[in-house]
Amino acid sequence: MKKYIYLFISNLLLFIVFPVIRLVSKSFYEKNILPYVLNLSCNSKPVDYQRKKVIPDAIGKVLEIGIGPGSNLKHYNNTKVTSILGIDPSKELNQIAKKRAEKYNLNIEFLIESASNLSVDNSSIDTVVSTYALCSIPEPEKTLQEIKRVLKNDGIFIFSEHGLSPDKSVSFVQNTTDSFYPKIAGGCHTNRNIEKLIIDNGFEFIELNNIYLPGTQKFLGYNYWGKAKVVSK
Ligand SMILES: C[S@@+](CC[C@H](N)C(=O)[O-])C[C@H]1O[C@@H](n2cnc3c(N)ncnc32)[C@H](O)[C@@H]1O
User: Fold this and answer.
1) How far is CA 179 from CA 8, 169, 175, in A?
2) Domain ranges of the chain
3) Ligand 1 centroid from CA 68, angstroms
4) Which of 21, 73, 130, 138 has its CA 20 to 30 A from that of 196?
5) For ligand 1, what atom is nearest to the CA of residue 114?
6) pTM here?
């Protein structure tokens, strides 16, 4: 019963309420609703559980791309991490992240910029982190090339992302909703093949896992997580 109530409410919001509000006023939706919806969905229990699986492995000088509201901050191990540079183009999410960062003892700096054009030196980063960001970044290929450029030779790329499902019925929903879903979800494409994107852009996996997030609609919840390293520069 609980499952059906969740499905009814989430479908009502995703397919009717949010599109209508955005249609009436795009700027109102993007300033006053979207940042809070993203903050809420990014902090759901299953998503937080995924964060815990990857973030504690970050070491040294860390670059987190698309840091958003800073939901990973609580999971960094400050005895292993020397500094964090969090980048994101959203000023509204940056405000939430800055407030959140005050609670943790981390050496952290924020930059408002795009991950596809980073103002970070070549081969200067030990760990790049990306969680639920490659779905929303307009140029994921360029971003992965940037990640490759800034990582040290022995650096690691840590990720937890959602994307294209291998199941035909789910990928059908992902592909058909892609004409409007990104408009109400901050540019989030649920149908990106994260595994292929990472490999095609010069990385090899140290570890790759997949799961449907529990308690999450399947078209939103096909999760890829793990670690990768650069094949060659
Ligand atoms: C679904 S949110 C995820 C936020 C955060 N990574 C997390 O795990 O909660 C997607 C994020 O990607 C960011 N984003 C969109 N375009 C971007 C770009 N070009 N470069 C970096 N981040 C971008 C958005 O502002 C947003 O913060």
Assistant:
1) 21, 17, 8
2) 2-230
3) 5
4) 73
5) 20
6) 0.93
